[in-house]
Known about the structure:
The structure holds 2 protein chains of 2 kinds. Chain A has one domain (21-51, 66-296): MetI-like (MetI-like fold, Orthogonal Bundle), CATH 1.10.3720. Chain A contains 14 helices and no strands. Chain A has helices at 4-9, 12-19, 22-43, 45-48, 79-115, 117-132, 135-147, 153-184, 187-195, 199-211, 215-235, 248-260, 265-292, 311-315. By secondary structure, chain B is of the alpha/beta class.
Amino acid sequence: MATDKSFVRNLPLISHLRSSVGLQRGMLIVGIVVTVLFLLTAALAPLIAPYGFSQQFSATQDPPSSAHIWGTTAGGYDVFSRTIWGAQTAVLVVVVAVILSIFIGVMLGLLSGYFGGWLDRVLVVVADAIYAFPTLLLAIVMSIAISHGSSSLWGGIFSAAISITVVFIPQYFRVIRAETIRLKAEPFVESAKVVGASSVRIMARHIYKNATRTLPLIFTLNASEAILTLAALGFLGFGIEPTSAAEWGYDLNHAQSDATAGIWWTGVFPGAAIVLTVLGLTLLGESMNDLNDPRLRGRKRAGRKNGRKNKELVDA
Amino acid sequence: MLDIARLKVTFATDAGAVLAVDDVSFSVAPGEIVAVVGESGSGKTVTAKAILGLLPETAVSSGAVIISGNDVISAGVRSVRAIRGRDVAMVFQEPSTALNPVFTVGWQIAEGLRAHAPGGKKPSRRQARALAVEALRKVGIPDPEERVNYYPHQFSGGQKQRVVIAAALALNPGLIVADEPTTALDVTVQAEILELLRALRDDYGTSIVLITHNMGVVADLADRVVVMYHGDVVEEADATTLFATPREDYTKDLLAAVPHLGRNSASAGLTARAHQDAPVLVEARNLVIEYPGRLGRGGFRAVDDVSFTISAGEVFGLVGESGSGKTTIGRAIAGLNRTTGGSLNVLGHEMLGFRERSFRPVRKDIGFVFQDPAASFNPHLSIGECVAEPIVIHEGTTGPALTKRVGDLLESVQLPRGYADRFPHELSGGQRQRASLARALALRPKLLIADEPTSALDVSVQAKVLELFKEIQAEFGFAALFISHDLAVVDMLSHWVGVLYKGRLVEQGIGSAVMGDPQDDYTKRLIASLPVPNPAEQAKRRAVHRALLGL
């Protein structure tokens, strides 16, 4: 069995960090730091935020002051508190959306790739049809269908998450299906077949684990896309009501008219929050992508003297 | 012609710097064929690439590689590019990937001419074409005026390798580096390419550095041999001296491990087919297997009207070149391919139109060993879990009883019990193939199908695995279908041998009889093309078989 130490070393992010050098390492570290900050903010929102997200003040459109460090909005909300609480909403939506789409996408991908035939053809056509829709339009249609406009906290989160899920399922489906088709022809799957393993056993034990290796990568890239979709939904007025949860897109929408009046604080902070979060997640995903591919991965140059013969390689 | 002095190449890898070539020195005289032999990881290909300055960015090299007075190691990119093609050219292992599929072969041959135009004056289209035709004629492509406009896919594998050689020859380099030039080719084609390389040396005085792991090829072609191991040169000698009186222990072991046609035959002394009183396990009658064709085109008939039987306890050797249908037959017996005509009876189960559900119980009596041991294990499962899989599926054993059985199985294939906890990538190729054998034998099957089980292994490892296979077969007494392209390997193991050619079983008989006195024309040609690892004997064979091979 692998020792604890090597287990820790082989965890996704830690192994990535160990194998990176130079600029790639810098990108990865920035990505990790920003993402961790985002997650911490979401987790500790009740402690960090001075006020509740739906707490209204009589002072509207106040510039930053000691009472409201990032000022207040036209609706009398505290900008700082809403930005902090917004992180929580974003994390919840991303987690629900990605978990739902991973479950459904992976299941369908495995079945479709392994069995092929008419099931595969139907699913691929459906996935292609969903792809053909503009994602945002689809998300809006879904959100109207699910929540009929009104929304509580969880109702809002689920409707946003499911709208995003519908858009993302085809992505997971396609990746897993392609991997499954490739793995189906691998000798180790054939050897399981020869041994007499059932289809369920082959899918669960042999294909599933090998096909899902790229998932952490799609996960991080999709997480950033999910945040953008959520913000866009909120911005267009299909998001979550301000009384149910704080949502960056909604705040940005209501900051539109302020911008022309020179009231910058209502728009800049939620906007910056979106940019930073998406940037952090994208940096993380992209650098993981590069590090996973040995051809893209940078290495320290080999010295002339310090080379050693690798017994394992030579004796293989 | 070529002088390599104290060449050292280090690679940067994830696991730190690895020294691939350590202090290698040898030289090649004009008109000489020097073979660099060694097993995988010995550094022979890295040496070849260093000669052309083709090492990847992660490599750091030192020492000197001097070609016609220029040092490739210290020269800049520009001057190395000038040397390539003009003074030294390379022939690659896989001709189908060495040629670009979207250009005609004439264009590709002329590419070097355009790159090396004297005084920067590029040859006209007509001149380039004439030179390409000339190059194709030199390597024996029929109808070069016509064929110069063909695309790579219109040539067969052997012809493609001829085109690659023609491209290497276009500028008349004094030196050709051939990296495993015949490894991807069938033996009958290999004989032609070896003859072509020999003719180049004899007619044009080209020096050749031949990188290979195949001792038969070395015996056939080389004047001098450099043996490499772990990045070092172990021994350097004349071909005849090296094969007759190897000096170093490593060379001795290497030569002893090479299978030699006609020695160690499993069927030596047999006059009648063995095991005929035992029950018949597999019976094929007029078996036909077709792969469906594309729309509007007929299917491809991979196996055509083949009849044979395998009795209990018998080792049936199936030989043939690529595309002969040997693997298709093996897979059909294991239920991985569907048969389309005739009859194939496996352990009392008719395979024509079989259903997976009804065949599943039969599977526990069939073991299968795949060609590539690295790919036939799930990388996420430990060796123990992989070996245990058939037992878990068919008997549902768990816990300590299972652990014990897996341990016993590993010991029976000469692997330590502790290897059950290792992962496939932590084992060497030979160890993995042993584990693969253990998995195939887990349920004590009546029939074992081994599809090229040793062709991905080095010769010394192959020798050990074959030895183990022979011992275990004698001990367990299962029947086996042994599929291989290597006649010598098949002869070492099989009592009865079938020769396949283009889907037809052209000859079958007692192993030693088929190898010693082939009746069919194709079998004769196949056996004549196989180079034996002994230069003197091979020269004699070549002279005798010249007419048969159409050289």
